[in-house]
Design goal:
The complex is a heterodimer of chains A (about 120) and B (about 110). Helix content of chain A is about 0%, strand content about 50%. Chain A is mostly beta strands and about 120 residues long. In chain A, strands 2, 4, 5, 6, 9, 10 and 11 form a seven-stranded mixed β-sheet that branches. Chain A is globular and about 40 Å long. The mean pLDDT of chain A is about 95. In chain B, about 0% of the residues lie in helices and about 50% in strands. Chain B is built from no helices and eleven strands. By secondary structure, chain B is mostly beta strands. The mean pLDDT of chain B is about 95. Chain B starts with a strand and ends with a strand. Classes of the chains: A mainly beta (about 120), B mainly beta (about 110). At the A-B interface, strand 5 and strand 10 of A face strand 5 and strand 10 of B.
Chain lengths: ~120, ~110
């Protein structure tokens, strides 16, 4: 059974750093297109980052280089390193997988990141 | 950035009704268009990809059509579990989502 389980979401002060994790089971993460998609409270969806099976990574322009996506194949886990957090980064962060670029066919349950003083 | 505009924002219908949701792109995305359903407290679920291909496990009452800039998601006969928010998403360029259409019970 395919599963994606996110963790790492917390309440954090503006300017802080945080790393989200997404543990996968039922498939190998570095053979799929893996993404992070976020949803601010009561708002719509925003694609944050994607990493291809060949290791290429892409990010939303709005992030201004603050986030880094990565994979630890030995742990079958996807990560999102987030730096210089602001209130606008407050959201549920979903880990997502797809067999094609820019398409999600399986979502995790999400982890909530709250940036507030 | 490709802007996707969904209409209407809210659709009030009864079980058994036909639902027609629209998604318009600010420029052509060919058929690189997907539809997702999201219920409260849950992640989205893929319904349609490639504008008209129904995802695995999705009931036949869901269908998608369109190409270029204008797309439609149709639910032929609403079931109680279909009342939710629906998002379109383009996959040709950096992926973006529409603002969503809420299908609510009338």
């Amino acid at each position: 059974e395919v599963q994606l389980v996110e963790s790492g979401g917390v309440l954090i002060q503006p300017g802080g750093s945080l790393r989200l994790s997404c543990a996968a089971s039922g498939f190998t993460v570095n053979t799929y297109f893996m993404s992070w998609v976020r949803q601010a409270p009561g708002k719509g969806l925003e694609w944050v980052s994607i990493i291809y099976p060949d290791g290429r990574a892409y990010y939303a322009d709005s992030l201004r280089g603050r986030f880094t996506i990565s994979i630890d194949g030995s742990k079958n886990t996807l990560y999102l390193q987030m730096n210089a957090l602001t209130a606008e980064d407050t959201a549920v962060y979903y880990c997502a997988s797809g067999v094609m670029p820019n398409l999600v066919d399986f979502w995790g349950q999400g982890t909530l990141v709250t940036v507030s003083s | 950035e490709i802007v996707l505009t969904q209409s209407p924002a809210t659709l009030s219908l009864s079980p058994g009704d036909r639902a027609t949701l629209s998604c318009r792109a600010s420029q052509s995305v060919s058929t690189y268009l997907a539809w997702y359903q999201q219920k409260p407290g849950q992640p989205p679920r893929l319904l349609i990809h490639g504008a008209s291909s129904v995802a695995t496990g999705i009931p036949a009452r869901f269908s998608g059509s369109g190409s270029g800039t204008d797309f439609t998601l149709t639910i032929s006969s609403l079931e109680p579990e279909d009342f939710a928010v629906y998002y379109c998403q383009q996959a040709l360029y950096w992926p973006t989502f529409g603002g969503g259409t809420k299908v609510e019970i009338k």
